[in-house]
Amino acid sequence: MTADTHNEQPVYLDYNATAPVRPEALQATYDALSSVGNASSAHYHGGDAAGRVDRARRQAASLLNCSPGELIFTSGATEANNLALQAGYAGRGGIVTSRVEHPAVLEAARALAANTPESLMILPVDGQGQVPQDAFRAAVEQSGAVLVSIMLANNETGVIADLGPITDAAHAAGALVHTDATQYVGRLPLDLDALDVDLLSLSAHKFGGPQGVGALYIRRGTPLPQRPLVFGGGQERGWRAGTLNVPGIAGLGAAAEAVHRDLTDEVPRISKLRDLLEGEILTRIPGSYVNGAGSPRLPGVTSVTFPSAPADALLASMPDVAASDGSACAAGAPTPSHVLLAMGLSREAADSTIRFSLGYATTEHEIRRVIDATVRAVTHVQTVLGTTTRP
Ligand code: PMP
What we know:
By secondary structure, the protein is an alpha/beta fold. It has helices at residues 23-33, 44-64, 77-89, 103-112, 133-143, 163-172, 246-284, 311-317, 338-342, 347-351, 364-385, and strands at 11-12, 71-74, 94-98, 120-123, 145-149, 176-180, 199-203, 214-218, 289-290, 301-305, 321-322, 353-357. Helix 2 runs parallel beside helix 7 and helix 8 (311-317) crosses helix 11. The longest helix is centred in the C-terminal third of the chain and has 39 residues, at 246-284. The chain starts with 10 loop residues before the first strand and ends in a 6-residue tail after the last helix. The model has no long low-confidence stretch (mean pLDDT 94). It binds 4'-deoxy-4'-aminopyridoxal-5'-phosphate. 4'-deoxy-4'-aminopyridoxal-5'-phosphate (PMP) binds next to helix 3.
């Protein structure tokens, strides 16, 4: 298929893979990189670096409504998830999680339970991507769970979990609750005073900070055996050794502050653009449908399944659109999305699904280009494959 005639850049609709760096984060990262100092050193330059880290911790804590001392900086959400599971589980009992979790939870849980597979329960979800509450309650009560890990928002569908009843049931059974909030933080307001989780993971690059930096929130007073993944100089109060990534952390903090300031405007603007994209696609492409549409979802995500049009062929036919077939984290893997299969899609339907994810810099003009490109690509692929669906 031909590229746009306007010589415009392809439209970036892959914010769930990574978001463009916000100008504030770029500046803070640059400033930190431009000045010397190890945050552990006692002299002037160390103090300067430590000051940038302190500031970032306060900025991130303010976005989450927690206290700065409850945050441990990590290399990203993958590490935060691994750390949460390792510390929360600590070989003490069972872990309950779900089939739609990110591999950074599922594979970490599988590795921890490698010698005691019976201690790991991976719960199915319903057609809307939700863990059924009664199955969840039964699982935590019967399994002797010490740790529950259920993601707040799914990276492929944007489906938001109903965490209130889950945390209540888990706490009643004596288990700690971890949530992977990587896709939620910076996309919708989050208040850790109201969300009763013990552990929460986030990643800067999903909300306009740099890649390779994230954080684990550990609620004050959580009875957690200290089990770091990385041993060494005892940084981050012994939770995560290694010289702090001051530029990355400064960027995370600046992105958190910018998002905190702008979120009230961004949420309705992004939701409106997503609804425009979704509405036009559903109207103009007969037989297409949105996964998880019956659940609350993040404002900037839509996972659309197209009738008899494989996603790889579609994306190849629309080079002006940067979107994703399945999740970028599993890109290259020949298996269909485990999330969509868990929600009941056939392998063929899962393979015919595109995730469009929008964000703070997406414009209406871009969305209109994507709508046209998608309609053209579906028609083209269905014609080539002889599968055109007539309205
Ligand atoms: N959890 C979820 C839900 C994600 O979407 C991602 C990123 N794809 C991760 C964890 C891993 O985050 P990071 O890139 O910071 O390691």
